[in-house]
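Minutes, methods subgroup
Present: GH (chair), OT, SY

1. OT presented the first of two proteins processed in the latest run. Sequence and structure tokens recorded below as shown on screen.
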Amino acid sequence: MKNVIVFKSKSELGAVKNIDDFVIFCKEKLTLYEDVIDWNKSEWKGIAIFRKLNTGKGIMREEYTLDANFINFAKSYIRYQQSLNPVKNLGGKMMALRCLEEALLQVCQKAYIYNTTIIVLDEAIKIASQYYDNNVLYTCGYELERLSSFISGQQFLKIGILSWKNPIKPNTRNNYLPEKKDEERRNKLPDERALLAIAEIFSRQDEELSERDLFTSSVFALLMCSPSRISEILALPADCEITRNDKDGVERYGLRFYSVKGYGATIKWIPDVMVPVARKAISRLRRLSKNARSLARWHESSSDKFYRHDICPTVREDEPLGVVQVCHALGYPLTDKKQCFNKIKCTSLDGGGSFLNPADGHYTLRVLGQMIRKKLPADFPWFDKEKSVRYSNALCLLNQHQCNDAKFTARYAIYRPTYSFFSQYIEKIPPKGQRYKNIFERHGYLDSEGKPLSLRSHQPRHLLNTLAHLGELSELDIAKWSGRVCVTQNRNYNHTSQEQMMLKVAGMRLGNNRYCHHTDSHSSLNVGEDMDTLNNGAVHLTPNGYCIHDYLIPPCKKILKTMEFGWVGSDAMNEQQREQVIKKLRSLHQMTKQAVHEGFYGADKWLSYHENVLSILERQIKIKGSI
């Protein structure tokens, strides 16, 4: 059956009939989620839970379900919007639906969507403000505005048409605050001691580090190479490295990324100083994931044979195995039969549902292989289908228990590292009920109070964005390097302090140059005499006169455009006067070049301007001479 996407309401049918038709359309004609949802249930696992506002996240009770007069519309709206423009996180849309349902019940006593009015929407945002604040409240208001626009445009309202705007403004952080007053800056940027510590750990020889140390320090090193999210690093393909020559023929090194939040596939170019770090981190992660990727590749291509790793017994597929051979087939390097017996007795290949039989001759490689293949991940062979990364080509893939010093690595099982797997070994607070040393405590890096240092995965992203702002990278380039769709989001990652900006201004070498002074027009005959006293090269010079500026003020681009059609006033000049003007232009060029060398801010733009002017004039003189 063809999946019809667009629903068209009919004005002659009225609001109630249009809503009924919309629900039927979404329930019966849309195919999205058809294999994973039961329309009649209030919980669509992994998609949305249609529960009332402020009913927690616990067990779903019948009284928690959205109102019977509202829930079918809510389900239809979610399914329809996801069919048109799917998003990963439906939290904002569900917030808006819950707040609107509550407002309809309070204002109208019944939660029919066709009763929505300006008053109801105002009440909905008022209700939302009781539970949410800051940008979460803004998001709820934004989704309410979209929802109101939808139901109005589809003629689902008894009042006809309404126009409602979100009254909540998004919070924008103030940049360039003093360091002492910028609490957010201290929280978002990493501790310098912890950065130096993780760098020292990463620099050690492989044999000095555990596999967990190698994995954690390598992933963090990649986070420091370009502004990235931890999910993007963990989903990198093993063949992510790329080298290309730029326009000047210089080889550049980058990583193939798939940036989340709508940006998509891209290449993140790594600064030259960080290229050796990135290469070392990638090399270590490839080595750690080698066996797991080989295992995944084996399962992709060989459906009926056992994966032969380096300690797998060399026997036929259907030959009965002894207890020690079973241990070796599973990758456990034990030789004592009693130890093997106890290990197999507590080993489960189905997640704990049943345990292996420790008797000799009970299993063959083929039987073990069939049991193992049944427990492959549900989405196998895709490690991340959206990013087109297979398990067999996942850089950060591991074997189960590979980084656990207290357990044998299960070479027969693959494990996909998660955010928590990475963060719990580098952050300060261990998960509830666990006590272990993080990477800093293991290597003796403690703060002044004797507590282990810590880092968070998103801190490098904030740090690199701040450094990019300090280095005067353009807003567009920062957004592109960070894999960010909206340039305005850059400000949330810019933690440049007031003190840093003052130091930057002090280092601009502004000097005592005159600032944007304009002189009277001078005839070209007196240009040579009047310009002898100039103390900077930020000058627009024409046959009719000149205008003095400061290096801070960029040169006028229109002058260059008009010069292409001929320098106005140059026809009245004789050869000597023309040479005099060009001589002065070359003098300005040299003066500006010296200013660039001495570090005057903005002088580089004027140097480029004078070079272009001289090039145009010399070309025009050459053309006139050939006529």
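2. SY then presented the second protein from the same run.
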Amino acid sequence: MGPRFDLASSNIVTYLSSHKKPPPSLERDQLTQFLVSLTTSDELVSNSPELVHEVRVVADTALRSLTSTSEPSENGFLDPSVTEGILHPLVQPFREFTIFIFPVGTSSDQKALAQFAGQAARLPGATTLVLTPAVYGSKENVQVMDPDMGIEQAIRNRDQWPGAIFSLWTGWSTFLPLDEAQGRLATIASGSTGPPVSPTLPPKYRHIANGTELNFSGAWSVLSARQTEISPARRRLLHLSDLHLGAKWTRNTKQLLIASLTREIETVDEIVISGDLFDQPFRKHQQAYEDFIFQLQAISGKKPIPVPGNHDQRIFGLKWWSFLQRLRPLVDLDWSRGISLNHEARMAFFCFDSSRHEDLARGRVAQEQLLDMATKFQVLNAQGKLDGYLKVAIVHHHPYPYGTENEVSILDPRGWVGREEFIEMRDARQFLSWCAGRDIGLILHGHKHVPRLIVENVSTGYPGDHRKVTTVGCGSSLGANKGPLSFNLIEWSPESQSWSVIFMIDRNDGQGFRSHYVQASPTIT
């Protein structure tokens, strides 16, 4: 058996079949693996062997082209122009197919997925290409950069696996659980497609393949009849950060963010803000923040859970000894202290002030704050009352330096001006260990305006005892200094303890907010 395709392959196929620009962000190894899989894998099956052979030949040429290029990667990813140049010869053969199918599941689903792949490859009335991804371990994280809609649905609905991602050459894609996917295939095969989605199918859904016009409106109407929705049992958390309200650039971006969030916050259970609520610790900036929160609360019905950042209590975000520090606005600020609980959603939020201590733009969660929080936790967790809760620590400063070996930076951290030693969190290991010791599996932070994710097995302080801790950083939600706007969505299931995080970014390029990275984990700890 040859190499298999990971879920990122679906992103590449969507790009190839629709030729929508820009191409997805790809590391050199990811692109290499995809091309190698095309040329050697027996998991590439179709009802058109001739087209599969053509794909293999062109992919072999593209692989040799990639091997010969010495173009350096930026922030771990190939330059989009390089990716586009390597993949361009594959566009034509991929556009000869009408439907692409990716079975998705874990190792226990292999037999069912193989049977489904064989059935899908024989689908009549459409030229079908089936790429069987590598199955994932039951405890393995699943992550994809720049996901298309089908991938995002598949990862966010991991608790509905096994299933399949369907993609059409138009770029449309969706995920369906396996039972439903099999039913859709049977309907297409029988020709019982039912009424079309619209009386007149747009010309873009009439596909020219091998010189013949193929109208696959029936398949399209069947597959798109109901896109997969997030299970109502899943809970949602909105993560904002580094608003810097009061600064000039926020006058326009705050309305853009509110408008973009209107649909999202209708279904969120909580909203958290990880610091730098306003740009300077002045009354007028505090007022700008309070006006923004009033708007957010009016449309969401939720009172946000904020923690302070260095800009909320230091002029220009800096402090030299006692100079430039102003705590009066912080005293007046209604920021969250201690532990906040949402029993219905089974969420517990541990709210820390990392900016009260240290100098410059550095931070630290002081020992007395950890002791106070530990006492509150012991009282609330009497007889294990918080067992099964999503335990979340909210802090402004980042517990890991940027450039950490196992981090995923969604944007290039080199775009942020500032040396790590001037902005770091001191005693970060002590803070991480404290969280691990209390089964806090998720830490949310801001500070550097660069969204990122790190998963690590953290010591609880006892020999040989570790817990998996995921640290999620949010960029600047209002686009500090005219940079990208950013927010994160965390979804989780109290029943299965599975969860996912989606990084939403507006790069100020006119395309609006779109998901740039999505990760699902089988359990929060």
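Chair's summary of item 2: Residues 183 and 242 are 47 Å apart (CA to CA).
Next meeting: continue with the remaining queue.
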